[in-house]
Design a protein that fits this description.
Helix content: 40-55%
Strand content: 15-25%
Order of helices and strands: EEEEHH
Structural class: alpha+beta
Number of domains: 2
Bound molecules: zinc ion
């Protein structure tokens, strides 16, 4: 939606005014009125109201997904390393 202009300033994905920054979860640009600040541990994140309504003001699901993804990559690397070691001996 709204891909008409190649405008310079990012527009808020919810109300269309000038965005203040990207949502920490879905990366959609949002303005100050359409985002909510949430405590993600050591840092404070801004997530859009759409994400807040969908998953609550917590970044935990997103973090878990990232961790799972990293674990998969590490597993693949470990498998390759093991295969290389086996092939050499
Ligand atoms: Zn907005
Ligand atoms: Zn969002």
């Amino acid at each position: 939606m709204g891909t008409g202009d190649g405008g310079a300033a990012a527009r808020c994905a919810l109300c269309g005014t000038e965005a203040a920054g990207p949502c920490a979860r879905c990366r959609a640009p949002v303005c100050g009125d359409c985002c909510t600040l949430t405590d993600g541990g050591a840092t404070t994140f801004a997530i859009c109201l759409r994400c807040e309504r969908r998953g609550g003001a917590s970044l935990r699901p997103a973090w878990l997904g990232l961790m799972g993804w990293l674990a998969l990559v590490l597993l693949a690397l470990a498998a390759v390393a093991a295969l290389l070691t086996l092939a050499r001996s």
